[in-house]
UniProtKB/TrEMBL annotation:
This is Acetylornithine deacetylase. Gene3D superfamilies: Zn peptidases. The lineage of its organism: Bacteria, Bacillati, Actinomycetota, Rubrobacteria, Rubrobacterales. InterPro entries: ArgE/DapE_CS, Peptidase_M20, Peptidase_M20A. One of its GO terms (molecular function) is acetylornithine deacetylase activity.
Length: 175
């Protein structure tokens, strides 16, 4: 898992093009393991980014694992992960390439174990939609990827979150 995290960290995925390259790498990683992926275009300002879904199992409940590849910009050296005192450091290790690597291996293991529940790993190129257009999660929801339970790999310092920030869209008229 550390080797996979290191590979993901090398992607300077703070630009749409490199985020898409990371998505292509992940697609190939699953393909090399015989896991079928479904890709959905339409994210990003020009619809140029694809989101990825990997599914194992087919029963109930339907469990979603969610991750993203985009990171904030950083110094060049931060894109080479380093290990110190049994901890891995690098751009995106904490948010959220380490969790993404763990979920990728979890899906592979669940397939090997013959998971009865439906488990989908939803990977999006963009979490915060900084470049305009719909984000990857919006695209996946529009394609019907909703479940009974969602686990996102966002760092929470081991606190269980039952809700997250939302968006309120309203129109105010002043006279």
């Amino acid at each position: 898992m550390l080797a996979l995290t290191r590979q993901l960290v090398r992607y300077r995925s703070y630009t749409p093009g490199v985020a898409q390259s990371a998505m292509d790498f992940i697609n190939g990683w699953f393909g090399a393991r015989g896991l079928e992926t479904t890709r959905y275009g339409g994210a990003g300002s020009q619809g140029e980014l694809t989101s990825l879904v990997v599914r194992v199992g087919s029963g109930e409940p339907r469990i979603l694992l969610h991750g993203h590849v985009d990171v904030v910009p950083g110094d060049e050296g931060q894109f080479e992960a380093r290990e110190e005192r049994d901890e891995l450091y690098g751009r995106g290790v904490y948010d959220m390439k380490g969790a993404l690597a763990a979920m990728m291996y979890a899906v592979e293991d669940l397939r090997s174990l013959g998971c009865e529940a439906t488990v989908e790993l939803l990977i999006v190129p963009d979490e915060e939609n900084e470049h305009g257009g719909p984000n990857g999660a919006e695209v996946l929801i529009g394609q019907g990827h909703v479940g009974d339970f969602l686990i996102t790999g966002e760092p929470t310092d081991f606190h269980i979150g039952t809700q997250a920030k939302g968006v309120l869209d309203l129109r105010v008229t002043l006279r």
